[in-house]
Amino acid sequence: MHTIEFTVDALKALAVMPRNTARLIRSKIDLLAADPTAPNNNVKRLKGSAHYRLRVGDWRVVYEVQNDKLVIVVVRIAPRGSVYD
Q1: What span, in angstroms and rounded, lies between the C-alpha atoms of 54 and 78?
Q2: Where are the alpha helices (DSSP H) in the chain?
Q3: C-beta separation of 68 from 55 below 8 A
Q4: Chain mean position to CA 15
Q5: How far apart are the C-alpha atoms of 15 and 9, rounded to whole Å?
Q6: Tens digit of each residue's pLDDT (9 = 90 or more) over 7-21
Q7: Local confidence band at 3 (pLDDT 50, 70, 90 cut-offs)
Q8: Is there a contact between 26 and 52 (Cβ–Cβ < 8 Å)?
Q9: Whose CA is closest to 4, among 30, 42, 22, 27?
Q10: What is the pTM of this model?
Q11: What is the number of alpha carbons within 13 Å of residue 36 lying toward its C-beta?
Protein backbone atom coordinates (compact mmCIF):
# COMPACT_ATOMS: atom_id res chain seq x y z
CA MET A 1 0.00 0.00 0.00
CA HIS A 2 1.45 3.36 -1.07
CA THR A 3 1.01 6.63 0.78
CA ILE A 4 -0.09 9.70 -1.16
CA GLU A 5 1.60 13.11 -1.06
CA PHE A 6 0.51 16.26 -2.87
CA THR A 7 2.57 19.15 -4.22
CA VAL A 8 1.46 22.67 -3.36
CA ASP A 9 0.18 23.17 -6.93
CA ALA A 10 -1.96 20.03 -6.74
CA LEU A 11 -3.49 21.09 -3.41
CA LYS A 12 -4.27 24.55 -4.80
CA ALA A 13 -5.98 23.00 -7.82
CA LEU A 14 -8.16 20.85 -5.55
CA ALA A 15 -9.07 23.88 -3.44
CA VAL A 16 -10.34 26.01 -6.34
CA MET A 17 -12.29 23.39 -8.31
CA PRO A 18 -15.93 22.52 -7.57
CA ARG A 19 -16.28 20.51 -4.39
CA ASN A 20 -17.97 17.49 -6.00
CA THR A 21 -15.23 17.28 -8.66
CA ALA A 22 -12.51 17.52 -6.01
CA ARG A 23 -14.21 14.74 -4.02
CA LEU A 24 -14.33 12.48 -7.08
CA ILE A 25 -10.67 13.13 -7.91
CA ARG A 26 -9.62 12.46 -4.30
CA SER A 27 -11.49 9.14 -4.31
CA LYS A 28 -9.77 8.07 -7.55
CA ILE A 29 -6.37 9.08 -6.14
CA ASP A 30 -7.08 7.05 -3.00
CA LEU A 31 -7.71 3.98 -5.20
CA LEU A 32 -4.22 4.44 -6.65
CA ALA A 33 -2.68 3.64 -3.27
CA ALA A 34 -3.41 -0.06 -3.77
CA ASP A 35 -1.92 -0.32 -7.29
CA PRO A 36 -0.52 2.92 -8.79
CA THR A 37 0.06 1.50 -12.28
CA ALA A 38 -3.15 -0.51 -12.73
CA PRO A 39 -4.38 -0.13 -16.33
CA ASN A 40 -8.03 -0.48 -15.34
CA ASN A 41 -7.86 2.83 -13.44
CA ASN A 42 -7.41 4.92 -16.61
CA VAL A 43 -3.70 5.15 -15.83
CA LYS A 44 -1.09 5.66 -18.51
CA ARG A 45 2.65 6.30 -18.36
CA LEU A 46 3.66 9.56 -20.01
CA LYS A 47 6.16 9.20 -22.83
CA GLY A 48 9.62 10.62 -22.15
CA SER A 49 8.88 11.06 -18.46
CA ALA A 50 8.81 9.13 -15.20
CA HIS A 51 5.28 10.42 -14.54
CA TYR A 52 1.92 8.74 -14.96
CA ARG A 53 -1.45 10.29 -15.68
CA LEU A 54 -4.81 9.38 -14.23
CA ARG A 55 -7.89 10.32 -16.22
CA VAL A 56 -10.91 11.47 -14.22
CA GLY A 57 -13.51 12.75 -16.68
CA ASP A 58 -12.14 15.93 -18.25
CA TRP A 59 -9.50 16.27 -15.53
CA ARG A 60 -6.01 14.79 -15.49
CA VAL A 61 -3.89 13.92 -12.47
CA VAL A 62 -0.15 13.71 -13.14
CA TYR A 63 1.74 11.74 -10.53
CA GLU A 64 5.06 10.07 -9.85
CA VAL A 65 5.55 6.70 -8.15
CA GLN A 66 8.47 6.28 -5.76
CA ASN A 67 8.47 2.52 -5.23
CA ASP A 68 11.53 2.54 -2.99
CA LYS A 69 9.59 4.59 -0.39
CA LEU A 70 6.09 3.36 -1.36
CA VAL A 71 4.97 6.93 -2.04
CA ILE A 72 2.79 8.42 -4.77
CA VAL A 73 3.49 12.13 -5.34
CA VAL A 74 0.63 13.96 -7.05
CA VAL A 75 2.44 16.58 -9.12
CA ARG A 76 -0.37 18.35 -10.97
CA ILE A 77 -4.15 18.35 -11.35
CA ALA A 78 -5.64 20.30 -14.26
CA PRO A 79 -8.20 20.14 -17.07
CA ARG A 80 -7.33 17.92 -20.01
CA GLY A 81 -6.16 20.69 -22.34
CA SER A 82 -3.71 22.41 -20.03
CA VAL A 83 -2.24 19.72 -17.82
CA TYR A 84 0.71 18.91 -20.08
CA ASP A 85 1.90 22.50 -20.67
Answers
A1: 11
A2: 8-16, 19-32
A3: no
A4: 15
A5: 10
A6: 999 999 999 999 999
A7: very high
A8: no
A9: 30
A10: 0.88
A11: 23
Q: Which domains does the chain have, with CATH numbers?
A: 3-79 (3.30.2310.20)
Q: Let me know how long the chain is.
A: 85
**What is the end-to-end Cα distance of the chain in Å, rounded?**
31
Q: Tens digit of pLDDT for each residue in 28-63?
A: 998 888 887 777 778 888 898 889 999 998 999 999
Q: Is 78 exposed, middle or buried (0-12, 13-18, 19+ CB in 10 A)?
A: middle
Is residue 83 within 8 A of residue 76, CB to CB? The reply is yes
